[in-house]
Amino acid sequence: MGITAFVEPLVIFLILMVNVIVGIGQETNAEKALEVLKEIQSQQATVMRDGNKVSSLPAKELVPGDIVELRVGDKVPADMRVVALISSTLRVEQGSLTGESEAVSKTTKHVEENADIQGKKCMVFARTTVVNGKCMCLVTDTGMSTEIGRVHSQIQEAAQHEEDTPLKKKVNEFGEALTMIIGLICALVWLINVKYFISWEYVDGWPRNFKFSFEKCTYYFEIVVALAVAAIPEGLPAVITTCLALGTRKMAQKNALVRKLRSVETLGCTTFICSDKTGTLTTNHMAVSKLVAMGSRVGTLRSFNVEGTSFDPRDGNGR
To answer: What whole-number distance in Å separates Cα of residue 261 and Cα of residue 247?
Structure first.
């Protein structure tokens, strides 16, 4: 009896531990993967400091007042003002910030301070891409002070007030209904057994000489508590977490990275997804994969397969 008394608590403890380990493990792996992606996509900038040209300076080390050189293919590392055009024109793709489908021409002309983002023709913004031209810019804002940083701040504020996921709402409704049912059953069992620990005698048609047995009352109270504990599905959280973890694993096989398990809950109830294509589903870049040229003989063609998808000429080899 001494050993068997610890079996049920031990099983409940193991189930809770599996629940915690699976949840923390999944979220930790997702965070590590995101950190690796951030390292791969870390931005570099060419900066003029104290009259010296510093190449490949990490974008996170930029400060307001730095002079940055931008050229075709560069990702803009911070919000900056165009101070000098080295080429005749400068065009920037800022669809990821403003949703514009075409690249925007930039100049050095002054604009009103309260102008909207589209009207700031003398400014280039973080996370946008230079598609044509070369210029020198003055850093004005970095980090969360940039336009894209403000967008992220608004997203974080909205995330703090997010509603419960559909699955969580259903689980809460199930828990409330189950609690009500268990409470009614326990109350009914308690009332049925009241006569065993409270007794009385009828004298002249009225109940008299009440007798109360504390020992029997405690015994039946333990029965009611045991009944309530047995009716609670302590394995339900572990089952839900395991199912969600399997969902994230299946999505990972399709190259989808899930940071939080609750994202799988919401995605499972989603019927339509409306998304902007440029900058979200695509990168607004096109790469040549095959070239066809006239052959050495009349009526023949030569084909060349091209590798690589970036502006770097060392990325891939043509054959």
So the answer is: 9
pTM: 0.51
Q: Which two tokens stand for residue 159?
A: 């995330």
- Tell me if 153 sits within 8 A of 144, measured CB to CB: yes
Structure tokens at 288: 């040549």
Give the span between the Cα atoms of 190 and 223, in whole angstroms. Answer: 9
pLDDT of residue 1: 53
Q: Which helix (H) or strand (E) holds 195?
A: helix 194-197
For residue 259, give the DSSP letter.
S
Please, which pLDDT band fits residue 91 given cuts at 50, 70 and 90?
very high
The stretches of the chain forming alpha helices (DSSP H) are 7-40, 95-98, 147-160, 166-192, 194-197, 214-231, 236-252, 262-268
Output the six-digit token pair for 176. Answer: 């409330």
CB 171 within 8 A of CB 164: no
Check residue 44 and report its DSSP letter.
E
- Helix/strand/coil for 8: helix
* Residue from 204, 276, 312, 315 carrying the catalytic annotation: 276
Query: For residue 75, which of 88, 62, 89 has the smallest C-alpha distance?
Result: 62
Q: Based on C-alpha coordinates, what's the Rg of the chain? A: 34
For residue 179, the tally of other CB atoms under 10 A from its CB is 13
Is pLDDT at 41 greater than 70 in this prediction?
no
Compute the distance between CA of residue 256 and CA of residue 9 in angstroms, rounded to an integer: 38
Q: Is 283 helix (H, G, I), strand (E, B) or coil?
A: coil
Annotation marks residue 312 as catalytic: no
